[in-house]
């Protein structure tokens, strides 16, 4: 069973489009994250949700909007896609009340043309 | 501002060699993570430690809280160890936000 899954795995789209990436974890974790890995392979946190509540919102354009319908899901919606949004987006999860050890999804490779 | 430094950016070793990868951080942390990213792109958490030393197979991670420094050691290295090794720290705040280093690309030659 996949612990943290993301869909789609690959996403190629035109500039200006709106797209969503979905993330689901079956670990029973209460905290979920979105990270962006740029072309230089540098990872940076975008958002973090704990029990469906937003707790970290780094400097990310308003075009990016996370949505957490329940503790097991954290989706990322991106409006008006730009060329610079091309990156790999990783979802991860951890448990807040114990020593955190984050589990990562396989990543979604987004290419904006 | 919390900064996580790793160097060198690239590291090449011969199969069988003992390898050490270093990581320094600038502020107090609750834990330090070592992650491995293979060429296929997937990220695996290798270790999370807040003190002392942890061992898993041929991998050993150590941390010195006073010096704000951690090392990842690979014994009897193998070409399959070729990957990017990233250290990341958890800040001491109420949430478990990770701040990442830029990663070190390790190539182990047969």
Number of helices of chain B: 0
Could you give the count of β-strands of chain A?
A: 11
As residue ranges, the low-confidence spans of chain A are none
- If you average the pLDDT of chain B, what whole number results? 89
Helical coverage of chain B, percent range: under 10%
Distance between the termini of chain B: 41 Å
Order of helices and strands of chain A: EEEEEEEEEEE
Strand content of chain A: over 45%
Helices and strands of chain B, in order, run as EEEEEEEEEEE
Average of per-residue pLDDT values of chain A: 89
Cα gyration radius of chain A (Å): 13 Å
Beta-strand percentage of chain B?
Answer: over 45%
Shape of chain B: globular
- Poorly predicted spans of chain B: none
- The outline of chain A comes out as globular
Structural classification of chain A: mainly beta
CA radius of gyration of chain B is 13 Å
The assigned structural class of chain B equals: mainly beta
Question: How much helicity do the residues of chain A have?
Answer: under 10%
């Amino acid at each position: 069973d996949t612990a943290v899954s993301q869909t789609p795995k690959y996403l190629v789209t035109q500039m200006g489009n709106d797209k969503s990436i979905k993330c689901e974890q079956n670990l029973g974790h209460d905290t979920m994250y979105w990270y962006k890995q740029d072309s230089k392979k540098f990872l940076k946190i975008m958002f973090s949700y704990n029990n469906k509540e937003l707790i970290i919102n780094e400097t990310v354009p308003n075009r990016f909007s996370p949505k957490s319908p329940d503790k097991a899901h954290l989706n990322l919606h991106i409006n008006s896609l730009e060329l610079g949004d091309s990156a790999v987006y990783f979802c991860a999860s951890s448990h807040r009340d114990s020593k955190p050890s984050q589990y990562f999804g396989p990543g979604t490779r987004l290419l904006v043309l | 501002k919390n900064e996580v430094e790793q160097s060198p950016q690239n590291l090449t070793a011969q199969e069988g060699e003992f390898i050490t990868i270093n990581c320094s951080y600038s502020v107090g942390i609750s834990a330090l993570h070592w992650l491995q990213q293979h060429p296929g792109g997937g990220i695996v958490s290798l270790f999370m430690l807040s003190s002392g030393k942890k061992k898993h197979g041929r991998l050993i991670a150590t941390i010195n809280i006073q010096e704000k420094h951690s090392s990842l050691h690979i014994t009897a290295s193998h070409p399959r160890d070729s990957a990017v090794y990233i250290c990341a720290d958890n800040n001491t705040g109420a949430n478990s936000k990770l701040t990442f280093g830029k990663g070190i690309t390790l190539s182990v030659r047969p």
